[in-house]
Every structure is written in C-alpha cells, then in structure tokens.
Write a structure and sequence with these properties.
Blueprint: H1 2-30, H2 37-55, H3 58-67, H4 70-75, H5 78-96, H6 99-122, H7 125-146, H8 152-157, H9 166-190, H10 205-218, E1 226-230, E2 236-240, E3 243-248, H11 255-273, H12 290-304, H13 308-321, H14 330-336, H15 354-369, H16 378-390, H17 416-435, H18 439-444, H19 449-458, H20 468-476, H21 483-496
Helix pairs in contact: 1-2, 1-3, 3-5, 6-7, 9-15, 9-21, 10-11, 10-13, 11-12, 12-17, 13-14, 15-16, 15-17, 17-21
The structure holds zinc ion (ZN).
Amino acid sequence: MDTLKEYKALLAEIGKLDSAASLLEWDERTYIPQKGHDARSEVLGKVSKLGFELFISDRMGKYLEDLNREEVLASLSEKDRASVRWMTHDYNRLKAIPPDLFEQYTIDCSKSEFAWEQAKAESSFELFQPHLQKMVDYARQFAELYGYDENPYDALLEGYEPGMTTRDLKAIVEPLREALVSLLDRVTEQGTPPDTSFLEGDFPVDKQRELCMRALEAMHFDSDAGRLDVSVHPFTTRVGPGDVRITTRYMENRLLSSLFGTIHEGGHALYDQGIDPDLTWTGLDTGASMGIHESQSRLWENQVGRSLAFWRFFYPQLQEVLPEFEEIPVEEFYRAVNEAQRSLIRVEADELTYNLHIMLRFELEEALVNRRIEVKDLPEIWNDAMERYLRLTPPDDAHGVLQDVHWSGGMIGYFPSYMLGNLYAAQFFATAKREIGDLEERIERGDLLTLREWLREKIHKYGRMYSPSELAEKVSGEKLNPRHFVEYVTSKFSDVYRL
Ligand code: ZN
C-alpha cells in the first residue's frame, strides 16, 4: 500500500531531523564553547522547525486521514496501527495551535526562562511575575484550543500523560497524601535517624566517575550504544538508534549526587536502549509517557539503587575505590542513603517526601489554569501550601515558588509525571518481584541482568505502542495503583528508621 509506505518515509525523514536536533542540543548542554551558544540556538531552531513543519504538513494530514479509514486501519499490522494512532494524537494537538501563536509562544518561553534565571538568582518574584503571567495565559489558551471534557487542566496533562485526568489524579493524591504524612510523622517522631556524617567529605571526581562507570556496567548499560558525560543539570537524550547519551554532575563534597544521578539517568537510558529496532523512525521509538519514562529511572535509582540487596553487592566496589568506607558497615551505609526529612527543595527531596512536593505543585497549577488563584498571589499561596504539606516556610522565593524551571518554559501539567513515575516504579517492581521469585537474591549477587531483561521484555521493547494505563495493565494486570508505593515506602522506612 503506497500511502503507508509514503507515510513511513515521511516519519523517517522527520525522525532523522529530530535526531540531528537532539545531537545539536546535547552538544549545547554539554561541551559547546561559550561563544557558540547564540548561533547554535539559531541552528537548532532551524532544524527543529523543519521537522515540525513536516509533521504538521498537509501531506501528513492527508496520509493520516487515509490511514485512519476503518477498512485501512483494520488491514495494518499492530505496530503500524499504533503508529497511526499516536501520530494522529500528536498531529491533532499540534494543529490545534495556530502557527503564529506557537511562534510567539516559543519566543516568549525563551524570554521567560531567561527572566526566571535572573529572578531566582536575586530571589525576586516581581522580576518573574509578568513572564509567568504570560505562561499561565498561554496554558489557559492552549487548553481551550486542545479541548477537554471536564477540566482544562486535562488538556495540558494529555501532552505528558495521555489518558490521565485531573479527576484520576485527585483520586490518587488524597489517600496517598494521608498515608505519606502519617508515615512521615512516625518516622520523624519515633524513628531512629541514620548516621549520615560519613557521606560528607572530599571525594575526588575521578573516583566518583569510576564508581559511576561501574554502576552503569552492573546495570548492563550498553556502552557501545551510549555514553556518559558531564552537564550542570543531568539529563538523558536518545540521539537515535544505537546512541543514547546520559550526563551526571560531580560535586567533590557530595558522593551520592553523581552516583544516584548516574543510576537514575542510566534507568532512562536502558529504556531507550531496549526499544524494539522495528520501531525505529516510526514515531514510536520513544517512551510511553513522561511518567513511564520516569518510572524506569526511579526504579533503578530507588527500588534497586537504594536497596540493601544492591549495596550488599556494590558496597565492596565502593570500598575498593574509596577505602575510607572500610570501617562503615554496609547496613549503616544503606540506612544513610535512605535518610528522610522534610525539606524545601523538590530536587533534593527523598523518596518519602518527594511526592508531597509534587502534590503541592499539582494543586497550584490546577487552580491557576482554572483561574481559582492568580499569579500575583503565588508566593504567598506557595508558602501556605508548604506549611500544609511539609510544615516548612521558605526563607525566600528562591527556595520557594522560584525553585523550579518548568513553569518558566511553559511546562504546566508536567509535574504530576514525576509522582506517577514513582508510583509506576513501585508497581512494576512489585510485579517483577512476584514474577522473578528470587529477584532480591539475584540483585545481591550482582545479577542485574535478569531485571533488565524483564523490564525490556515487559516495557522497553514496546516503545510508545501503548498508553500508560494500557501498558500498566499489560505489565502488572492492573491500572495504576498507589497501594504498591505505600507498601514499599512503609516497609523500607520502617526498616531504615527501626520503627
Ligand atoms: Zn528522570
């Protein structure tokens, strides 16, 4: 069938342009010389625009229209049908925004990000307020253009978590919050806190790098199909088939930042490396959603990387690289890497408090989009919410409402993906434990391959063929169920804090 062939050829063309853009962007975020930034932004903008224009072209519209005819759809393979399904989904969203509006939005985003950086450095919300107002106005306008059934916030969520709604999220948040707050109270009031003094010190970068490489090797990260580099903010990017780039950052006084950062990004990378090669350039050679992608990074970072089983295997390697740990028992080290406490900054939050930071942002975003609150009142509302969720008051806006980059770049509706990632990670890991009876013993022996293969078979290879909830059902036999996360943290922190 010619239409299918031409459609796939067009997707391949777009995929290759996106691949070029990814590499340009990776370079911009890692090693580009200072003076190259301005020209690079223009080149990147140009290449991205080429791909974008092809995607929303009339040609693509025509192909999708033809391929979506019932009798044609029925004749397609499962993979091709999935491609048509998700490309139609994306096409309709992108077409909903008039090109002039989108171009103005892109320009305003970069101004807003720049203003945010300054505002954060000076801890001045006033500097950021007019820009944030614009971003919120765009979000409200885009939600109307995308369309929704119940809540305009649903239209924004759809861009990150297809199928997820505000109603679903609220049903997850309320009981989860109650469970977490009561566990956190028990931990802080009755628990025995771990000694973390030995995590402070002077840890040379080359030794940290050695550990990061050993961890990646243990995870069976394919070094012939990816590499580890350095950047200010760690990230993962899939440049193309056979090429997944991850980064970490080294801080001499903080050993765990680079290591857990590497394991986290390594989890993202294993997902990208495990996608079925048949899906290359089909638009499906990516993760099912932001939340599912994050579930893979979190699973490796937390369920594996912060488990006693993992440290029984990996601790001797750490001691070999850093002999000062020879005197510290592995159990104490394991307890230290699981310290839990209420804190102001999301990116530094532990497993127990992290979701509370997300709930706060979800509450505020949803209220902003629905005009129940206004931008000018945000600092005060943020601080009140911090008091409600974490019983803390930020000393200034840099440690409060200005801490995250997302809103400045128009990413309203993204935060819930982080929480969903944590919840999916616990659910998938519980399933893996059930299906691989001796999983923990295997991890303790340093066999992480069994788990990687299980994840590849159940999740990674499908790329974006299924929606997040379809995938969850396929993997674990049920839709997203926060019970698994609650059980996981309850058991872990009862152990760590000797409750
Ligand atoms: Zn991540």
